[in-house]
Design a protein that fits this description.
It is an enzyme of class 4 (lyase). This protein is 29% helix and 33% strand. It is α+β, with helices and mostly antiparallel strands.
């Protein structure tokens, strides 16, 4: 069957209805069906249609004015070859369960296509994941590298526990040496018991800046410097001079603590926190705090997920907004 190309999409006459009914290709319209560019090029590659005045390479050349077209085509072709029916849509593709197709059955995935160097806007991700959840769909990112290899990631909100156990009542006094805070363990044995700080050889407990701020906000830690009281605001100013991410890190640390988690530095994993839950001796999560308006390269996200997988942890990006924190989990999946 022969299609015509109008520069944006392809059209088949009445004979094209069989493609829609059998495989879910195109969208019906008066007198035939209209094919999205990815569908048309795939069917031409499969020798299931002809396109007037166009070879495969000629049609590809005409469609390549859209710089993102070829990687979308690669994803479309890959999913079709895996046995899925799909349609183009606002999230690049809407993918149906195997055996289902448009007009018959429900879609399972909303797929967004990204190249390895594309920036991933986390504000957009949070909104699109929420939309997918409201539609009861799984949200996927199909990442395409420079050699045309595809990796699929499921992206979802990780719903951590809403509230953890009540904070303890112990109190302590810490000595500040710049951003470094030391506490004598004999004066605050509860610190180690509750998972705060690190015991140094000199017999003192070193508190990180985020631990210090959290404990001060909870009214459980008082700071002094050179014998004089040091306020929370003054300490924050000192610590923030050498840590431009302290604000969002402190917010996420406090939120994780309130949820009953035990966050510790994740520096050796290249992220802000490794997170212990339910009294486990092994951390199961890595969390990285990112402020509102952040965009990260797809390649950086891929490295984070691979590293987390290699140490048997989940990778969470803690998106800090003015009134909420969304924990967005990226996980590689096989379709």
């Amino acid at each position: 069957m022969k299609a015509t190309f109008d520069g944006k999409s392809l059209r088949l006459g009445q004979e094209g209805i069989s493609l829609y009914e059998s495989g879910g290709y195109g969208r019906p319209e008066k007198g035939g069906i209209r094919l999205a560019p990815e569908e048309g090029l795939y069917l031409l590659w499969r020798n299931r249609i002809e396109v007037a005045d166009h070879t495969f390479s000629g049609l590809l050349a005409d469609l390549s004015g859209d710089t993102g077209f070829f990687r979308r085509y690669l994803v479309y072709r890959d999913l079709r070859e895996r046995g899925y029916a799909l349609q183009t849509g606002p999230h690049d593709f809407r993918v149906f369960r195997r055996g289902d197709r448009p007009g018959k059955g429900q879609s399972q995935y909303l797929v967004r296509v990204r190249a390895e160097r594309d920036l991933v806007d986390f504000d957009q991700i949070v909104a699109e994941v929420a939309t997918a959840g409201n539609m009861r769909k799984q949200y996927l990112i199909a990442a395409v590298d420079d050699e045309g290899e595809l990796t699929y990631y499921e992206v979802k909100v990780n719903h951590l526990a809403e509230a953890g156990p009540e904070a303890g009542e112990g109190k302590a006094v810490g000595e500040a040496y710049g951003a470094v805070v030391l506490v004598r363990p004999a004066e605050a044995p509860w610190l180690a018991a509750e998972g705060y700080g690190k015991l140094l050889d000199a017999g003192e407990i070193l508190l990180s800046p985020v631990e210090t701020l959290y404990l001060m906000d909870a009214g459980r830690l008082t700071l002094v410097r050179g014998g004089a009281p040091l306020s929370r605001e003054a300490y924050y100013g000192i610590a923030a001079e050498t840590d431009g991410e302290l604000g969002e890190k402190a917010i996420v640390y406090a939120d994780l603590r309130r949820r009953g988690c035990g966050p510790k530095t994740g520096y050796k994993f290249g992220h802000h926190f490794r997170v212990y839950t339910a009294g486990l001796q092994h951390s199961l999560l890595l969390a990285h705090a990112i402020p509102e308006g952040t965009a990260l390269p797809m390649a950086a996200i891929s490295r984070s997920v691979r590293l987390a997988n290699s140490v048997k942890k989940k990778m969470l990006f803690a998106c800090v907004h003015t009134d909420d924190i969304q924990y967005i989990e990226f996980a590689r999946i096989k379709l």
